[in-house]
Structure formats: C-alpha cells, structure tokens
Amino acid sequence: MNVFVFIGLLLVSFSEEDSIRMQYHHVNSKESLETFISIIEKSDLPVSEVYLASAYMQMAKYVFSPYSKLKYFNKGKDMLEVFISKNPNNIDGKYVRYLVQSNAPSFLGYSSDMVSDKIFIRENINEADIGVSLKKMMLDNLSNE
To answer: Quick check: 64 pLDDT over 50?
Structure first.
C-alpha cells in the first residue's frame, strides 16, 4: 500500500494525536521515516515533538558515517529529554523513551530510565487521552520488551 494512502486512512480513522502515534509504529524504511518526519515537522501538536525526536534517532540507522549516526541520535535524544523534563507526566514521552532505550545499543549508555518509565506508563495509561487500541498496543509493546 502506498505510504501516503495509508497515512491518509489513518488520519480519517483516528484523532490527529492518535494518527501520529499509529504512523510512528509503521515506520519501517528510510522512505517511510522521511515521510513521517516531513509530516510531523509541520504539526503543531505537542505530541509531535516526542515522535520527531525518536524519528531523528531512527535516522541514524540510514546514514553511513558513525559521526552522522551519533549526531542524529544525540539530536533526537536531546529533544526527547528536554520534552520529558518540561512534561514529566506525558505518557508519549515516557513511552517513546522506553522504546528507544530498550532498543539502543548498550555502548550509547542510554538505558537508565527503562524501569521507571515502564512503571509510570502502566500506572497512568488508563487516564491518558489515547485511543483504546493504541493503549493496548503500547502495553503490549511494554510486555514484549
């Protein structure tokens, strides 16, 4: 399915925030990542900042130079940490950080918040303004790690 058609279908089915959350989980190539970045860079929704930060970190997979890889990763990490420090009770920030930390190479030393983020998400997800199917997916992703 064409990425743009898929994204269009998502926009009709979910709130704008839930659409961004869902699109994030369907990024699986450089092309889909670039499309995702171009969409969320134009968004003024607060949740966009979290997913844009993660998208920058994911871009490290698609560049060759170790310097560029680290540059992308650190740019996204810094964005994410600033967002979380300003919004410490935001489920999306904690969820994305958890996913990033659980998948980051150990030599990056970015794994110190996994346990606390997982606990926070489980304790607060029911009150979050997130669609039920996305809440289930988030909890399933926590269980799979």
So the answer is: yes
